[in-house]
Amino acid sequence: MTQVRLHYWAGARAAAGVEHEVFDAATIAGALAAATGRRTRSPGDQQFAKVLAACSLLVDGRALHPADLERQLSANTTVEVLPPFAGG
Predict the structure, then answer these.
(1) Cα separation, 54 vs 31, whole angstroms
(2) Is residue 62 within a helix (H) or strand (E), and if so which, with residue range?
(3) Cα angle vertex 34, ends 31, 67, to 5°?
(4) How far is CA 74 from the centre of its chain?
(5) Which CATH class is domain 2-75?
(6) Spacing of C-alpha 32 from chain mean position
(7) What residue ranges do the domains of the chain occupy?
(8) N or C: which end of the chain has fewer CB within 10 A?
(9) Crossing angle, helix 47-54 and helix 28-39, to 10 degrees?
(10) DSSP string covering 15-37
(11) How many Å separate Cα 17 from the centre of its chain?
(12) In angstroms, rounded to a whole number, what is the distance separating the alpha carbons of residues 85 and 22?
């Protein structure tokens, strides 16, 4: 199993309550599920999951395609978790 480091930015960091965390997971989907499970205190507590669902995910500076969430990882991976933002 590999290590997946989730690095949260802005609103995702606020929702997670930490800047980053590391999970042992075979896929990125597995790490995201573990992060969500860590924060779900009751069946109705889905705030973190809602924030995560709105986020873009970057791996090595590239947007992660949804099909790649279940791809088996062969090396430790850092995933940048970026919530939507607006600029001006």
Answers:
(1) 17
(2) strand 62-63
(3) 40
(4) 18
(5) alpha beta
(6) 5
(7) 2-75
(8) C
(9) 150
(10) HHTSSEEEEEESSHHHHHHHHHH
(11) 13
(12) 25
Q: What is the pTM of this model?
A: 0.89
Q: What's the Cα-to-Cα distance from 4 to each of 10, 33, 46, 66, 78, rounded to whole Å?
A: 20, 12, 22, 16, 6
The pLDDT tens digits along the chain (88 residues) read: 899 999 999 999 999 999 999 999 999 999 999 999 988 776 667 889 999 999 999 998 899 999 999 999 989 999 999 998 766 5
Given a contact cutoff of 8 angstroms between Cβ atoms, the answer to whether 32 and 69 are in contact is yes
pLDDT confidence of residue 32: 96
Cα 29 to the center of its chain, rounded Å: 8
